[in-house]
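Dear H.,

Thanks for agreeing to be a second pair of eyes. The structure we're designing against is below in C-alpha coordinate form, covering all 157 positions.
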Protein backbone atom coordinates (compact mmCIF):
# COMPACT_ATOMS: atom_id res chain seq x y z
CA UNK A 1 0.00 0.00 0.00
CA UNK A 2 1.00 3.62 -0.36
CA UNK A 3 1.12 4.13 3.40
CA UNK A 4 3.41 1.14 3.83
CA UNK A 5 5.70 2.44 1.08
CA UNK A 6 5.85 5.86 2.74
CA UNK A 7 6.42 4.32 6.16
CA UNK A 8 3.30 5.89 7.66
CA UNK A 9 0.36 4.48 9.57
CA UNK A 10 -3.29 5.57 9.46
CA UNK A 11 -5.01 5.70 12.84
CA UNK A 12 -8.70 6.48 12.75
CA UNK A 13 -10.48 8.22 15.62
CA UNK A 14 -14.13 8.97 16.17
CA UNK A 15 -15.28 12.40 15.01
CA UNK A 16 -16.50 13.93 18.27
CA UNK A 17 -14.27 11.90 20.61
CA UNK A 18 -10.73 13.27 20.21
CA UNK A 19 -9.87 11.87 23.66
CA UNK A 20 -9.67 8.45 21.95
CA UNK A 21 -6.53 9.55 20.20
CA UNK A 22 -3.82 10.69 22.61
CA UNK A 23 -1.73 12.12 19.80
CA UNK A 24 -4.52 14.50 18.74
CA UNK A 25 -5.05 15.51 22.36
CA UNK A 26 -1.34 16.23 22.78
CA UNK A 27 -1.24 18.31 19.57
CA UNK A 28 -4.30 20.32 20.61
CA UNK A 29 -2.79 20.96 24.06
CA UNK A 30 0.50 22.12 22.52
CA UNK A 31 -1.32 24.52 20.18
CA UNK A 32 -3.40 25.89 23.09
CA UNK A 33 -0.21 26.52 25.08
CA UNK A 34 1.40 28.31 22.13
CA UNK A 35 -1.68 30.49 21.57
CA UNK A 36 -1.91 31.27 25.30
CA UNK A 37 1.75 32.38 25.24
CA UNK A 38 1.05 34.60 22.20
CA UNK A 39 -1.85 36.29 23.99
CA UNK A 40 0.25 36.88 27.12
CA UNK A 41 3.34 38.11 25.23
CA UNK A 42 1.68 40.18 22.49
CA UNK A 43 -1.59 41.23 24.14
CA UNK A 44 -4.12 42.60 21.66
CA UNK A 45 -1.93 41.96 18.61
CA UNK A 46 -1.62 38.20 19.13
CA UNK A 47 -3.46 37.50 15.86
CA UNK A 48 -0.72 39.30 13.90
CA UNK A 49 1.84 36.86 15.34
CA UNK A 50 -0.27 33.76 14.61
CA UNK A 51 1.67 32.86 11.40
CA UNK A 52 4.88 32.93 13.47
CA UNK A 53 3.36 30.51 15.99
CA UNK A 54 2.23 28.23 13.14
CA UNK A 55 5.71 28.31 11.59
CA UNK A 56 7.27 27.58 14.97
CA UNK A 57 5.02 24.56 15.57
CA UNK A 58 5.48 23.14 12.07
CA UNK A 59 9.27 23.41 12.33
CA UNK A 60 9.63 22.02 15.85
CA UNK A 61 10.71 18.50 16.77
CA UNK A 62 7.83 16.01 16.84
CA UNK A 63 8.51 12.97 19.01
CA UNK A 64 5.89 10.84 17.23
CA UNK A 65 7.91 10.97 14.00
CA UNK A 66 11.32 11.80 15.50
CA UNK A 67 11.79 14.56 12.93
CA UNK A 68 11.30 18.28 12.51
CA UNK A 69 9.04 19.65 9.75
CA UNK A 70 11.58 20.21 6.94
CA UNK A 71 13.24 16.82 7.58
CA UNK A 72 9.83 15.15 7.39
CA UNK A 73 9.03 16.89 4.12
CA UNK A 74 12.40 15.86 2.65
CA UNK A 75 11.98 12.25 3.79
CA UNK A 76 8.45 12.02 2.37
CA UNK A 77 9.59 13.67 -0.88
CA UNK A 78 12.39 11.11 -1.21
CA UNK A 79 9.94 8.26 -0.60
CA UNK A 80 7.44 9.66 -3.10
CA UNK A 81 10.19 9.86 -5.73
CA UNK A 82 11.16 6.25 -4.96
CA UNK A 83 7.52 5.09 -5.22
CA UNK A 84 7.13 6.93 -8.55
CA UNK A 85 10.28 5.26 -9.90
CA UNK A 86 9.03 1.82 -8.85
CA UNK A 87 5.61 2.47 -10.42
CA UNK A 88 7.27 3.56 -13.67
CA UNK A 89 9.47 0.45 -13.67
CA UNK A 90 6.41 -1.77 -13.10
CA UNK A 91 4.47 0.05 -15.85
CA UNK A 92 7.40 -0.32 -18.29
CA UNK A 93 7.74 -4.02 -17.42
CA UNK A 94 4.02 -4.63 -18.00
CA UNK A 95 4.17 -2.70 -21.28
CA UNK A 96 7.07 -4.85 -22.49
CA UNK A 97 5.08 -8.02 -21.70
CA UNK A 98 2.11 -6.73 -23.69
CA UNK A 99 4.26 -5.49 -26.58
CA UNK A 100 5.87 -8.94 -26.95
CA UNK A 101 2.46 -10.51 -27.62
CA UNK A 102 0.96 -7.65 -29.65
CA UNK A 103 0.49 -8.15 -33.37
CA UNK A 104 0.33 -4.98 -35.42
CA UNK A 105 -2.39 -5.46 -38.02
CA UNK A 106 -2.93 -2.95 -40.79
CA UNK A 107 -5.69 -3.15 -43.35
CA UNK A 108 -6.38 -1.41 -46.63
CA UNK A 109 -9.61 0.01 -48.04
CA UNK A 110 -11.73 -2.77 -49.64
CA UNK A 111 -10.21 -5.50 -47.41
CA UNK A 112 -12.70 -7.83 -45.74
CA UNK A 113 -12.46 -8.06 -41.95
CA UNK A 114 -14.34 -9.63 -39.06
CA UNK A 115 -15.79 -7.41 -36.32
CA UNK A 116 -15.08 -8.26 -32.69
CA UNK A 117 -18.16 -8.10 -30.45
CA UNK A 118 -17.94 -8.00 -26.66
CA UNK A 119 -20.04 -10.54 -24.76
CA UNK A 120 -22.29 -8.59 -22.39
CA UNK A 121 -23.90 -10.42 -19.51
CA UNK A 122 -27.54 -11.21 -20.16
CA UNK A 123 -27.50 -9.99 -23.77
CA UNK A 124 -28.51 -12.47 -26.46
CA UNK A 125 -26.67 -12.01 -29.75
CA UNK A 126 -26.96 -14.18 -32.79
CA UNK A 127 -29.27 -16.62 -30.95
CA UNK A 128 -26.65 -17.34 -28.26
CA UNK A 129 -26.11 -15.91 -24.80
CA UNK A 130 -22.93 -15.25 -22.79
CA UNK A 131 -19.85 -17.41 -23.34
CA UNK A 132 -21.38 -19.31 -26.24
CA UNK A 133 -22.01 -16.16 -28.28
CA UNK A 134 -19.68 -15.49 -31.22
CA UNK A 135 -16.71 -13.27 -30.48
CA UNK A 136 -16.32 -12.17 -34.10
CA UNK A 137 -19.04 -11.64 -36.70
CA UNK A 138 -19.33 -11.15 -40.41
CA UNK A 139 -16.96 -10.33 -43.11
CA UNK A 140 -17.26 -6.59 -43.55
CA UNK A 141 -15.70 -4.39 -46.21
CA UNK A 142 -13.46 -1.52 -45.06
CA UNK A 143 -14.75 1.78 -46.47
CA UNK A 144 -12.06 4.10 -45.05
CA UNK A 145 -9.31 4.36 -42.49
CA UNK A 146 -10.27 6.80 -39.73
CA UNK A 147 -7.18 6.60 -37.50
CA UNK A 148 -4.10 4.44 -36.91
CA UNK A 149 -6.23 1.51 -35.70
CA UNK A 150 -9.79 2.63 -36.54
CA UNK A 151 -11.71 1.84 -39.70
CA UNK A 152 -15.19 2.56 -41.06
CA UNK A 153 -16.95 -0.64 -42.17
CA UNK A 154 -19.87 -1.35 -44.47
CA UNK A 155 -22.30 -3.13 -42.14
CA UNK A 156 -25.04 -5.44 -43.39
CA UNK A 157 -28.66 -4.44 -42.84
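And this is the sequence the design step returned. I haven't edited it by hand at all.
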Amino acid sequence: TVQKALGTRLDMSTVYHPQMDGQSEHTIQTLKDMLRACVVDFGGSWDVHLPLAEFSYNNSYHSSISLIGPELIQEITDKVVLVKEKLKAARDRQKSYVDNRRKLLEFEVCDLVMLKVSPWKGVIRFARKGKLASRYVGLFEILERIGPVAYRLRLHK
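Two observations from my side: The CA atoms of residues 42 and 49 lie 8 Å apart. The beta strands are 61-62, 67-68, 112-116, 124-125, 128-129, 136-145, 151-154.

Warmly,
E.
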